[in-house]
Amino acid sequence: MKITIEIDCTPEEARSFMGLPDVSPANNVYVENLAKAMQGVSNPDQLQQYASALAPMGQVGLKLFQSFVESGMKAASGSSGSKTSSD
Length: 87
Hints:
Distance between the termini: 18 Å
Low-confidence stretches: 80-87
Strand content: under 5%
Helix content: 55-70%
Number of strands: 0
Largest sheet: none
Order of helices and strands: HHHH
Structural class: mainly alpha
């Protein structure tokens, strides 16, 4: 049996429903600093260097976030790998 539930809400409503804090002010500061740093970028390699330096925890933080999102998607889709077959 497969049940699909679709919830139509804004990111703010979802964050509030799940009890997560509003990080908009911190995000705005981060985006402003990133935009200021990117103003002098002239090639993609320099852009990558700036982005990895400004990212929280650098590449480690990016990989951690990616694994967090992937595990959340697996859990949401029900493919946790713990399915058992009955004979």
